[in-house]
Amino acid sequence: KMIPLQLQGFGFPQEGAKIFNDPIHGHIEMPVYCINVIDTPQFQRLRDLKQLGATYLTFPGASHNRFEHSLGVSYLAGTLIKSFAQRQPELEIEERDIRNVTLAGLIHDLGHGPFSHSFEKWLARKPEIKFHHEDMSKKMFRYLIEDNHLDFEEEDIKFIEELVSGDCSPKNSHKAFMYEIVANNRNSVDVDKFDYLARDCYNCGIKSAYDFSRLMLFSRVINNEICYHAKEGWALNLLFNTRYSLFKQVYSHRVGNAIDYMIGDAFTLADPVLNISERVRSPETYTYLTDCLLKEIESSQNPGLVPAQDIIKRIRRRELYSFADEFIIPGEERQNWRIPTPEELVTFQSTNGGVQLTAEDVIVDKHTNNYAFKDKNPIEHIHFFNKWDSTESFLLHQKEISQLAPTTFSETYIRIFSRDKKKTAAVQQAWRNYLSKNSSSKPSPQHLIPPKAQDPEFMKGITRRLDF
User: Fold this and answer.
1) Do residues 238 and 259 lie in contact, with contact meaning Cβ atoms separated by under 8 Å?
2) Closest CA to 148 of 41, 290, 32, 48
3) pLDDT tens digit sequence for 148-203
4) Is 112 a catalytic residue?
5) Catalytic one among 25, 112, 133, 229?
6) Cβ atoms of 432 and 353 closer than 8 Å
7) How far apart are alpha carbons 193 and 183 in whole angstroms?
8) What is the pLDDT of residues 213-225, one digit of tens each?
9) 411 forms bridges with which residues in the sheet?
10) How many whole angstroms separate alpha carbon 154 and alpha carbon 148?
């Protein structure tokens, strides 16, 4: 039995509901229909998945898990749609809609694998396996329902699945604004970001100025879209800038990147023995695929896992793959810039260094940082309203919000790593030889390794410092 909306949030929790003390949102109430999902093996699995994967091995505070993030997104999704129902009764939001949107926020990350996006990146090396965590979230949700004998109508399951992907079906076009709550494909402003930006900043010790609760307060539905008060234009800029800053400082940290590749190499070496990649084909086996996989490899007595164990031992001893160089592709060159393979890069190695490089020594990493909307400005796709008329919406151009805001919204990095620290200088020189032949831009002096760094005795003293 549902308590009327106007009474929710007062007194004792509903029958069967539970209160969670969350460091970001305080005491949050999870209704019984969420508890029925939370108290299952498939959802409890999220306790064993670090929210930021291997980033924990670089930022010690990043020990939070997918479990609490999912609770937070569910809470915010439910809070937002309830506020629309209260403030805009003309939307005719039903209790069933509130339930489905709240559940979509809860189960949206069920499909993440060990070390989250690192695992997905590793699987991308295997073209025979088609995997995306959102698709797996839907499969895991259906398996969760079946395995725990939960009572769901097929119509609700499909609606929740659509809310997770943000793809509105023609059948539900009159509810298009609901698809912008958990996964907003129109402009990327959604409660998933509200939670993970606040939670990641908190746990990583990154200060943030944006306030998602204010954005939720100054939002309303106009023309079937979630719109924001015009004075929140800069707050939305701060949201995307915070996301960019986290990618720049945390998510794509060079040491974290190196560890990601080491974990990926360990998985590759262990795969023939443990059939890791085969476990993603079934929700039943995927349920037991968590961050504990690293310990499973480490503790095994199987001699076939010794090469993978050696890599993990290097991680434990901080004998990491070495960062060699970095290059931001200039905007005018991005369209035609071709990224070399390791095999191609080693053909540019210098012959007078006394070091012989092979393709196995080199990692060429490409990653893109943006404002969550590819190379476009998401602000240009957000509709606003003003205090005089909350029934009409309009677009604001960036220059109407600030003349100092960025004009470029995407950048692509090339990072070069060496699997053997002793060969770092040679790998860097090969990359810079390639760059001189294929780009008009000069490499940055900030990463230049001096000749004396090739002296093993000199390197002993600064090996640790090179990891930063």
Assistant:
1) no
2) 41
3) 999 999 999 999 999 999 999 999 999 999 999 999 999 999 999 999 999 999 99
4) no
5) 133
6) no
7) 9
8) 999 999 999 999 9
9) 369
10) 16
